[in-house]
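Structure in, sequence out. Go:
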């Protein structure tokens, strides 16, 4: 399980499970399950809701700090080359931010669908590619 959760930058030493770590993980699991059991409603229903919400919040296309750096560089380059106006850049950023707000039970349309301009749609696609390329980063 630790291999699934680990960063591609983790060393073998980082992935070594110590007795202390194993006890803490077990304690966390037990405490978490106890908390869920004390929530209103059935245990199965609560776990189902938690699972659904986690899938929304922990989705693969969530932006990382590394991606932010490259996105900003890309937008600044387009601004300096006058490919984008400041208002166009702001609109693209606003649309992308709305896509990144992760609220379970709230459907947000895809960022490409919120843009009319082919140029803006291309830039959003490039931003999404950057997010994908740097999703393992910090």
């Amino acid at each position: 399980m630790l291999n699934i959760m680990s960063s591609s930058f983790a060393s073998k030493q980082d992935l070594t499970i110590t007795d202390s770590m194993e006890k803490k993980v077990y304690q966390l699991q037990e405490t978490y399950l106890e908390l869920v059991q004390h929530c209103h409603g059935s245990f199965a229903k609560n776990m189902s809701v938690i699972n659904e919400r986690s899938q929304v919040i922990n989705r693969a296309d969530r932006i990382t700090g590394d991606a932010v750096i490259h996105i900003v560089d890309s937008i600044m380059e387009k601004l300096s080359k006058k490919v984008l106006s400041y208002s166009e850049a702001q609109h693209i950023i606003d649309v992308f931010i709305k896509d990144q707000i992760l609220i379970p039970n709230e459907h947000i349309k895809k960022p490409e669908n919120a843009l009319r301009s082919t140029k803006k749609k291309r830039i959003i696609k490039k931003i999404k590619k950057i997010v994908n390329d740097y999703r393992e980063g910090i």
